[in-house]
């Protein structure tokens, strides 16, 4: 799930877009207008056409474009609706066993792409968490939520230009003003909180043609958003199929522009999803809040952050009762129909989710969804992700650069993941060093 978690309502003038406007008003970013009603902003003091003269000469001509086809399933690339994506995949390097990483949600996996580290280091384990300091469930949509540096900032420091074209409000929020150039997304669909792909790709094209960033990070949200609300998701997938065809056409237009302008031969195009998608019937709902509140030990002392295919449970009672409470929460959750498995993140160290994920992580089975705290209104949408059924993702690298053209192995049996994007980009641009503690991901070029 992406947008239906119950959170404390924001006051007017709050939220990611308001914060972005405040940056411009305060002079930290400069507003730059473009044709077709598009608006971009740049770091203060950086001219619209300023060259990256400080970038190492050997890497100065290279370009990397990261296109996230949000929520896409690997098999959909072969479904006949995405000939352009399939051509990019089959003409480049591909990792058929690629996966999203826990929790299989949008925000944490986009953060992993640009940091190259797991959530126990980045501080971003899910879309929604219970903020113990603020005592509310909220989305992780603030720039300060990311506790480590990104490859965007590393490129900036070494003289490269960077750009973000992010269709979703919370992605715009969490990446904030890190890039030298940023699309100020519009129009935004109020309920979905995203800009349609036709506007996103128009912005991506104009950003390339006008500002020519060395790295551009793009989120295409239509496939995910249409999938969430597609009540035919378990059968004919009417809305989903329309979104797949539309996004594929836009990607094809973008690739044609790169070839037409001569950029293709010096570029890599990294295409992947942040997670896939799973659909549930109206009667396949797991709601744990009432179960916890009916238990004498747990009543009134458990807060749940609903992430669609995953529930994050937080113990708010006395610390000396935590161990007993965690055991009880896991026992009660495991008994509920539709629950796949439960974890104590402190003990399941391989999850690497950090303290922000709470005290118990609960996954649902394929074909089910969570709806907390209210079983009817908290999450009414049929399409969800966050659980293991949505781990598999497409991951491939196209482009005309020699690093792609001359690679010996076109299809790899290795299990690539979202955390591999940052080290791949860093390697492509010859960035010196690595984050403190090194990357958790692997360079795939």
Automatic annotation (TrEMBL):
Q: Extract the PROSITE patterns matched here.
A: TAT
For this protein, the record's Pfam families field holds: Phosphodiest
Q: Which organism is it from?
A: Nocardioides nanhaiensis
Q: What is this protein called?
A: Alkaline phosphatase family protein
Q: Which SUPFAM superfamilies match?
A: Alkaline phosphatase-like (SSF53649)
Where are the membrane-spanning stretches? none
């Amino acid at each position: 799930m992406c947008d239906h978690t119950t959170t404390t309502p924001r006051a007017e003038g709050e939220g990611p877009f308001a914060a972005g406007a405040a940056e411009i008003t305060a002079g930290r970013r400069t507003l730059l207008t473009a044709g077709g009603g598009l608006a971009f902003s740049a770091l203060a003091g950086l001219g619209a056409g300023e060259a990256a003269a400080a970038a190492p000469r050997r890497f100065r001509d290279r370009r990397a474009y990261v296109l996230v086809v949000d929520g896409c399933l690997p098999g959909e690339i072969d479904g006949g609706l995405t000939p352009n994506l399939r051509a990019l995949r089959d003409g480049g390097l591909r990792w058929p066993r690629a996966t999203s990483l826990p929790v299989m949600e949008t925000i944490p996996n986009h953060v992993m792409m640009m940091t190259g580290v797991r959530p126990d280091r980045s501080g971003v384990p899910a879309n929604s968490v219970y903020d113990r300091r603020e005592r509310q469930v909220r989305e992780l949509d603030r720039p300060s939520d990311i506790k480590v540096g990104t490859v965007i900032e590393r490129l900036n420091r070494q003289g490269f230009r960077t750009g973000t074209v992010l269709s979703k409000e919370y992605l715009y929020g969490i990446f904030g003003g890190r890039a030298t150039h940023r699309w100020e997304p519009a129009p935004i669909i109020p309920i979905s909180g995203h800009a349609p792909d036709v506007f996103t790709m128009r912005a991506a094209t104009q950003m390339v043609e006008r500002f020519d960033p060395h790295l551009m990070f793009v989120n295409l949200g239509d496939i995910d958003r249409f999938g969430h609300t597609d009540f035919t998701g378990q059968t004919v997938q009417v809305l989903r199929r329309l979104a797949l065809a539309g996004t594929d056409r836009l990607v094809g237009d973008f690739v044609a522009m790169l070839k037409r302008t001569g950029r293709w031969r010096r570029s890599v195009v990294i295409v992947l999803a942040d997670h896939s998608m799973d659909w549930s019937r109206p009667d396949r709902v797991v709601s744990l809040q009432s179960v916890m509140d009916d238990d004498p030990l747990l009543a009134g002392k458990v807060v749940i952050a609903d992430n669609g295919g995953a529930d994050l449970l937080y113990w708010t009672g006395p610390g000396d009762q935590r161990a007993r409470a965690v055991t009880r929460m896991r026992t009660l959750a495991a008994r509920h129909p539709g629950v796949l498995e439960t974890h104590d993140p402190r003990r399941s160290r391989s999850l690497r989710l950090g303290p922000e994920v709470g005290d118990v992580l609960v996954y649902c089975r394929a074909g089910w969804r969570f709806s907390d705290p209210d079983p009817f209104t908290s999450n009414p949408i049929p399409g969800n992700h966050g659980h293991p059924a949505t781990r598999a993702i497409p991951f491939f690298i196209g482009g005309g650069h020699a690093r792609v053209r001359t690679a010996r192995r076109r299809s790899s049996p290795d299990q690539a993941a979202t955390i591999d994007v940052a080290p791949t980009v860093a390697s492509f641009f010859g960035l010196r060093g690595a984050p403190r503690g090194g990357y958790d991901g692997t360079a795939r070029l």
